[in-house]
Amino acid sequence: MSGLSLRVLSIASEFFPLIKTGGLADIAGALPAAMAREDVHILTLLPAYPAVLAAVSSEPAVDLWDLPGGPANILRARSPSGADLLLLDAPHLYARPGGPYHMPDGREWPDNALRFAALARAAEHLGRGALPGYLPDIVHAHDWQTALAPAYLALGAGPRPKTVVTIHNIAFQGLFPPDLLPSLHLPTSAFAAEGVEFYGQIGFLKAGLFYADKITTVSPSYAREIQSAPEGYGLEGLLRKRAVDLSGILNGLDVDIWNPASDPSLPQGYDANDLAGKAAAKLALQQTMGLAPDPEALLFAVISRLTGQKGLDLVLQALPLIRARGGQLALLGTGEPALERGFRAAALADPKSIACRIGYDEGLAHLIQAGSDAILIPSRFEPCGLTQLAGLCYGTLPIVTRVGGLGDTVIDANEAALADGVATGIIVPVASQPSLELALERGFDLWQQQTVWQTVRRRAMTRSVGWDVSARHYRALYDDLLRIA
């Protein structure tokens, strides 16, 4: 199927631009092109959601009969970006309204265990050569939705490819009752601590972490953090035992899509040498979201799921400080109802300073990145994060907590870093209201020194946030895997 030397079957439940609820889709969508530059061909297996089928042309490839939930077909397709895809066409599992995981009313689909076990089981068949002319060297599973694939491959008979599971967010583990074991085509013997059992339930992610040959997560700091409680969410002991097989590889940003010089969502392009387009984007953003058209106001951005994990309750509490110092906030996101209500109420009370869009709009996300001066990401934990990478790329200084990939990618604008010319943002020491408000005060003070602010902004825009380094790390991981007997 490809002339590239190493073949990887990637399995994911989301894939940008076809289906997206978060950063997993961006990563799965960017990996094929990034790894092709490392002589790796990635073939991605996805569920054939209605939105995916509507966006691509497909053709039958192979029928699979032995799947949880019933038989299904594998379709061959290609994404709009040119990535090679295999789609698990199972209308009884995927042809339904709502998102990939939730019903239209927000509740999880009651058969999610079957829906994603079928995806993992299909990967097992493909890993053993079910698709004529294709036998992968490695099967790479992403998050709990696909993490049973290494288990199926390890528990089955016969030769198998090597396996990798990547943890994008360990807080989401895919836990289901043990009476589903037969329906999931798992042997009774696998329901044990040395297997798929996790505190009396079937743990999809736990199974992947136990059976996969290698484990990765999306930043070096997060790889360390999840080996201790509470960040490990009960899996820290297993991860410590497997520490030699665990590595953290930073996510990259697709800089073909996130590029302020050529971004079609902006009124005009810009780069670190010519920032006129950023000023134009700020005015356009203020007009689009109904904020006062004030170039002097320090405009903060939030592009996020509105959850406690992301520290958005702290941002809500800090709005009086932002308003008192003459700042503005442009927010785009959806999430916990109480936070949605809080930001809506704040925007209604002062629409010239606070703007709130509940939902997600890709074009508006690009305009917010370009038009804002700083982006707020005070997460309580953060595996990697992509919005701070986009902020760096667009000259929108990240204000982030020192957790996970946020601490790995942002250099605090302290005196030493400013003197050495390496600062790229502001670090919040801990996720608390006093710490965030102190960081905001530092931001306002830096904003008053426009020459310094612009120096930091230009330095941020020179940071390498693409996939080149990370792709080399993945290639090295794959090569290491294939050397294992």
Automatic annotation (TrEMBL):
GO terms for biological process: glycogen biosynthetic process. It catalyses: [(1->4)-alpha-D-glucosyl](n) + ADP-alpha-D-glucose = [(1->4)-alpha-D-glucosyl](n+1) + ADP + H(+). Residues 7-241 form the Starch synthase catalytic domain. GO terms for molecular function: alpha-1,4-glucan glucosyltransferase (ADP-glucose donor) activity; alpha-1,4-glucan glucosyltransferase (UDP-glucose donor) activity. The keyword RNA-binding does not apply. ADP-alpha-D-glucose binds at residue 20. Keywords: Glycogen biosynthesis, Glycosyltransferase, Transferase. Pathway: Glycan biosynthesis; glycogen biosynthesis. InterPro entries: Glyco_trans_1 (IPR001296), GS/SS (IPR011835), Starch_synth_cat_dom (IPR013534). It is an enzyme of class 2 (transferase). Coiled coil: none annotated. Its EC number is 2.4.1.21. Residues 296-433 form the Glycosyl transferase family domain. One of its GO terms (cellular component) is cytosol. It holds the Pfam family Glyco_transf_5. CDD domains: GT5_Glycogen_synthase_DULL1-like. The keyword S-adenosyl-L-methionine does not apply. Belongs to the glycosyltransferase 1 family. Bacterial/plant glycogen synthase subfamily. PANTHER family: ALPHA AMYLASE DOMAIN-CONTAINING PROTEIN, GRANULE-BOUND STARCH SYNTHASE 1, CHLOROPLASTIC/AMYLOPLASTIC. Synthesizes alpha-1,4-glucan chains using ADP-glucose. This is Glycogen synthase. It comes from Arboricoccus pini. The lineage of its organism: Bacteria, Pseudomonadati, Pseudomonadota, Alphaproteobacteria, Geminicoccales. The gene is glgA.
